[in-house]
Amino acid sequence: MPFSLHHGVTNRFFQTFDVQLISASGGAILGSYRAVRVAILKNDSPAGMFSFSQPSYTIREWGDDSLHSVTIRVIRTQGSLGKQ
After folding, report:
1. Per-residue DSSP letters for 11-28?
2. For 81, which of 9, 30, 46, 48 could close a Cys bridge (C-beta 3.0–4.6 Å)?
């Protein structure tokens, strides 16, 4: 039973389709389970992939107890699920 899968533009967590056996030949008989739902799990990430812009960060320690801040850049690639 050949079939083709086409990657659509809609982000989905999985895609399903049903297969049903309707006849047998050559002396074979059909058992009690004649239908099945096939689920193809996602091969991409609809929500996207997140990573830091650098593999490591070094922050200088100050000698006082005052508050300091650092900016760490997070990069989102691929998916757009949840994007506003």
Report:
1. --SEEEEEEE-----TT-
2. 46
0.70 exceeded by pTM: no
Question: In the beta sheet, which residues pair with residue 14?
Answer: 41
Q: What is the pLDDT of residues 31-71, one digit of tens each?
A: 898 898 888 766 666 677 788 888 887 777 777 766 667 78
The amino acid occupying position 12 is: R
CA–CA separation, 36 and 21 (whole Å)? 9
**Strand 74-77 vs strand 49-52: parallel, antiparallel, or unpaired?**
antiparallel
Q: Coil, strand or helix: which one is 37?
A: strand
- Write the CA distances from 12 to 33, 40, 57, 64, 67, integer angstroms: 28, 10, 35, 51, 43
